[in-house]
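Question: does this match?
>
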Amino acid sequence: MAADRVVNAIEVTDLTMTYGDLRAVDGVGLSVAEGEFVGILGPNGAGKTTLLEMIEGLRKPDSGSASVLGLPVWPRNAALLPRIGVQLQASSFFERLTAREQIHTFAALYGVARAHADEWLERVGLAEKAGARVEDLSGGQAQRLSIACALVHDPEVVFLDEPTAALDPQARRNLWDLLSGINDAGRTVVLTTHYMDEAEALADRVAIMDHGQILVFDTPAALVQRLDAPTRITLADGEVITTREPTVEIARLAELGRLDGVQVQTGTLEDVFLDLTGREYRA
């Protein structure tokens, strides 16, 4: 029997975008399987947003190609629009419309019933703000409305550019649950984020970008394991032990009766990120 064919939702080959002397995206290749949740991490100016805009068909690459659901994204492909959902880093709404009118407008573009659009306001916690004009919403509320508008037509592939940047911790966790549910239902999700815990909690695989290139692309666990970072053991009295043999060290502490209040921290995705991109501030 022939092996099942692996279908990729996104295929990117040698994408490049330059602005003068700056290579914002430098020969990036990327494959994302159907139903996969991928996180893209990187410092400011790493090229994350530019890469996403080219994959979405919003920006013409200088070279290379991208396809989504087997269809080329450029020239702008009208056949793809009902099948993808896009939440941009900067929200843009029709002026003087209420939140309900806003999402109803988006729903109408896709032939989606108003009742279904109202359900999305409920799902992102904006039912009580349905009658408020978009200019009167807080930054976090506007962000949630933008996400609801991107998802109102139940797209097959979802692109989210820093979706939780303006959200409070509770709204952020609620959005995690929402995105996990969408992904569990078979949707492909690609998001950029600055939050390492977000990428670890949500993404099947993580791409770390810097200077327009993808440096690594793997599962969070594999990236941490590859780093081979030492384990930090913090004792109740504040003493910190750094070791590459945590099992041996914990056994020793048990023999000494010093396990109460012990905290053990292995390497994290943040350690991987800093190891690859450095610790200097980026403008």
About this structure: The two ends are 55 Å apart (CA to CA). The chain has nine helices and 13 strands. Residues 8-94+144-219 form a domain with the Rossmann fold fold (CATH 3.40.50.300).
